[in-house]
Write a structure and sequence with these properties.
The complex is a heterodimer. Chain A is mainly alpha-helical. Chain A is 50% helix and 12% strand. A three-stranded antiparallel sheet of chain A has the order 1-2-3. In chain A, strands 6-7-8 form a three-stranded antiparallel sheet. In chain A, strands 4-5 form a two-stranded antiparallel ribbon. In chain A, a hairpin with a 7-residue loop joins strand 7 and strand 8. In chain A, helix 3 (65-80) packs antiparallel against helix 4 and helix 4 runs antiparallel to helix 11. The mean pLDDT of chain A is 89. By secondary structure, chain B is α/β, with parallel strands linked by helices. Chain B has a five-stranded mixed sheet with strand order 1-2-5-4-3. In chain B, strands 6-7 form a two-stranded parallel sheet. The longest helix of chain B has 12 residues, at 120-131. The chains are: A mainly alpha, B alpha/beta.
Chain lengths: 384, 165
């Protein structure tokens, strides 16, 4: 029998449609069908100035906007050859790790909800609310932050912001214990996840999986540690690994990542350097408001950047960062003008989704729900 | 920070593991190279892309065993019009390399790399969908993001940003 799951199905996290060929309760063949959320962002980028693309990158993956911002601005900064001041880099790392926690909390809540544990969802969204308030304080927006700029970050964080982050960071580890207390040794959770939707390391590499999906199968790679960007080489953290390659292994990887991320946030708070938050590049970075009102030259630069954008030298860059879901890559091609010639997003979810048939074929329909939850898909990122 | 000029001379680029691997195994695969902003680009002969990928994946010194990404760039109206771009990653050695194949605008087609990496499946379907580049030997070359009955390929440069109305 052919069974259509989705696009309106609560466990498909948006608008994923899965076509299942089933024999009784068993899945014989599985085919994901995507494209319901395709908005043509890559095409839109080609018609915008470089800076105007940043808000679009938020909307690709609405659960980790800062990661996408970071990846894009890093690529453009490499094309320009800009040097970013240390304080901006540390702020970026801190916001990025908060974003990772934010994203993992939504994943954990909805994944547990899919499998039938209602409470975890409420607990996770309690902490997520705290993070969203931090985002609002720093950027004015809860979800679509667009906080990073080519050449630095948009604004100095408001007074008392670091204290709020410190307060959150001190509370959070106990909260992770709470989540784990609800799930890790819960016999129903263990039965639904252990040994389910197995993925071998060879299959994971061949199919292009990345992030916790790859590390859950025992492949030790994390771009933050192995190919550091934005000053990640200054931070100490462990990369959680699990050998089993099942849903439980991926769950453990992500939960450990929550702890590591909050560790990085704490390190960033302690060692936050002083200094400017924007690069010294008047032709690229908007001048300060005060200077713009008083200095002729700044006013001219401001006018030029707003009306004509800034030209980027010819070239191409593939910049990859470790997003909560895996390797998020931006391939930016410049033809020397003020608009990108081509922006391509390498979506971690799109590649991760290719492992679904390998995970699910030959197993029960109920396991499909667990498998989809365990690779943490965001359809906005898949369809772009 | 001033940008260093790009290096295009293959002789100087031999130090890179991917270049030396391809040149020693089959020099015909390499049509050119470029080292710019710390990123290595190798232009690969159109008919030999699958072989080049297999050579790089199985290279014992520096196996580029992970296919990060496949995409394309449209250089309309110049010829060769399309560039299909592959980004490879070596998980054991933490190295990256970019492979490029140039295609003419008239019936662009090349060999699929799905026999080498099954993970190329969706990426190639996306390129087919949005650029109209055909991949020979692909197991299921259908539109991925656009509806089945869509006309045209939206990421081509001669396709208007607002679409046809």
């Amino acid at each position: 029998m052919i069974l259509n799951m989705g696009p309106q199905h609560p466990s498909t996290h948006g608008v994923l449609r899965v076509i299942l060929e089933i024999d009784g309760e068993n899945v014989v063949r599985m085919m994901p069908d995507i494209g319901y959320l395709h908005t043509g962002i890559e095409k839109t980028c080609e018609a915008k100035f470089y800076q105007q693309v940043v808000p679009l990158t938020d909307r690709i993956d609405y659960l980790c906007p800062m990661t996408n911002n970071l990846c894009y601005v890093l690529a453009v900064e490499k094309l320009l050859g800009l040097e970013i001041p240390p304080k901006a880099q540390w702020l970026r790392v801190m916001m990025n790790e908060l974003t990772r926690i934010n994203s993992h909390l939504v994943w954990l809540g909805t994944h547990a909800l899919d499998i039938g544990a209602m409470t975890v969802f409420l607990y996770c969204f309690r902490e997520r609310e705290d993070i969203l308030r931090l985002f609002e304080a720093v950027s004015g927006q809860r979800m679509m932050t667009s906080y990073f700029r080519v050449g630095g970050v948009a604004l100095e964080p408001p007074l008392g912001f670091f204290d709020r982050v410190r307060d959150f960071a001190s509370r959070f580890p106990a909260r992770v214990d709470e989540y784990e207390g609800l799930l890790t040794e819960n016999p129903i959770w263990v039965m639904r996840t252990k040994g389910v939707a197995k993925l071998s390391a060879e299959d994971a590499i061949a199919l292009g999986a990345s992030g916790p999906t790859l590390r859950g199968s025992g492949v030790d790679i994390d771009l933050r540690r192995d190919m550091p960007y934005s000053g990640y080489e200054n931070f100490r953290f462990k990369v959680p690994l699990a050998k089993e390659g099942d849903v439980f292994a991926r769950y453990m990887c992500r939960v450990e990542e929550l702890r590591e991320s909050i560790g990085i946030v704490k390190q960033a708070l302690e060692g936050m350097p002083q200094g400017p938050i924007k690069a010294n590049a008047p032709k690229v970075v908007l001048p300060e408001r005060e200077k713009m009102k008083t200095e002729m030259e700044s006013l001219i630069y401001h006018f030029k950047i707003i009306t004509e954008g800034f030209a980027v030298p010819e070239g191409e860059i593939y910049q990859a960062v470790e997003s909560p879901r895996g390797e998020m890559g931006y391939y930016v091609v410049s033809d020397g003008s003020a608009k990108p010639y081509r922006v391509h997003m390498r979506s971690a979810c799109l590649a991760n989704m290719q492992v679904l048939p390998t995970m699910c074929e030959g197993r029960l329909i109920a396991d499909v729900v667990a498998a989809i939850g365990s690779i943490d898909i965001v359809l906005g990122e898949i369809d772009r | 920070m001033a940008l260093a000029p790009a290096v295009n001379d293959l002789e100087q680029l031999k130090g890179h593991p991917a270049v030396s691997c391809l040149l020693s195994a089959n020099p015909q695969t390499v049509a050119g190279g470029k080292f710019d902003r710390d990123e290595m680009t190798i232009y690969v002969e159109r008919s030999l892309i699958r072989e080049a990928c297999r050579l790089l994946r199985d290279d014992p010194n520096c196996p580029f065993n992970y296919l990060s990404d496949v995409t394309a760039v449209d250089w309309f109206p110049s010829e060769p019009r399309f560039e299909v771009v592959y980004h490879l990653l070596s998980i054991p050695k933490r190295e990256r390399v970019r492979l490029k194949v140039r295609l003419s605008g008239d019936m662009p087609a090349l060999d699929s790399v799905t026999p080498v990496w099954p993970g190329a499946n969706y990426f190639e379907r996306e390129v087919f969908d949005l650029f109209g580049v055909r991949f020979n030997g692909h197991p299921y070359l259908r539109r991925l993001l656009m509806p089945e009955n869509w006309e045209g390929h939206p990421l081509r440069k001669d396709y208007p940003v607002e679409g046809y109305r």
